[in-house]
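Its record is retained below.
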Amino acid sequence: MMMHNWFECKIRYEKIAENGMSKKVTEPYLVDALSFTEAESRIIEEITPFISGDFTVADIKRANYSELFPCEEDAADRWFKCKLYFITLDEKSGAEKKTATNMLVQAADLRDAVKKLDEGMQGSMADYSIASIAETAIMDVYPYSAEPDVKPEFPEAANR
């Protein structure tokens, strides 16, 4: 299982509106990286082809998402932050214990987000309840993917 370190990076640039006027906007993006430095480098690399003119990385902060449920549908153009409670029983006291976790779901609207979250959680053995779902301002998500031709630094380690 691969662990992700998500960073929310805010990009500030001048955008041309439909009326032809330019205005400064700040848009958040989510990047999978090992450090703040790598997150900044990756977001600059990912955003450069799409933004003409100057832009700055206005802010980078850690984003605490345990899982992401992306969607390929054209209509699913928004990201929803879902707070879930996993319900476990304490064996000694018999009391229910709730553990909160955040997940990100790509969907068309709130109903679609609930549906996609339930579909994504189908394989889970744990009992859970949805505490809240809210639309985020996140424009896009860039998960880490290794280049197919990258060789491991120590190939003999894979043979152990």
